[in-house]
Amino acid sequence: MKSFCKVVALVLLSAVLFWRCNGFEHETIPNVQVNFTIYPDNVNYYNLNYIGGHEYLTGGVAGIIVYRIDMSTFVAYDRACPYDWEDTDSWLEVDESGLMIVDPHCGSRFNILDGSVIDGPSRYHLKYYHTSYDGRRLRIYS
After folding, report:
1. How far apart are CA 42 and CA 118, in angstroms?
2. In sequence order, what are the residues at sequence separation of 6 or more whose Cβ sits closer than 8 angstroms to the Cβ of residue 12?
3. Beta-strand pair 100-102/93-94
4. How far is CA 92 from CA 13, 16, 102, in A?
5. How confident is the model over 116-134, as pLDDT tens digits?
6. Contacts with 8 (C-beta within 8 Å, 6 or more apart), sequence order
7. What letter would DSSP give residue 80?
8. What is the C-alpha to C-alpha distance for residues 34 and 134, in angstroms, rounded to an integer?
9. Three-class SS of residue 48?
């Protein structure tokens, strides 16, 4: 039963990641060019060395949140809230639990694993950037 659950979880995660690969036009947030590489084992990115760790990086429209899902999978979201992305007070943050991304200004909350809306006024998912990890280098790009 345990291995069946792992297989189901892997299939669901793969489906989410595959779904994201089809077009990166966002309903509210404009597209900006993002293309850089970091080394998660570098002391500057200490929090990315463990599963569930996150870091705030520069880039994108309002900065980027990078989150480590497992030993080989990262996700990267723009910190601009889809509800009020032009408001500089609405930059997204990872909540204290590390399980959600929140906009303290409008109250929208998002799932950290897939960027979907949990609740709040936002109707749109988070703006997502591609990630590619080879075990040493993490590339984040649009």
Report:
1. 33
2. none
3. antiparallel
4. 23, 21, 5
5. 999 999 999 999 999 999 9
6. none
7. B
8. 18
9. helix
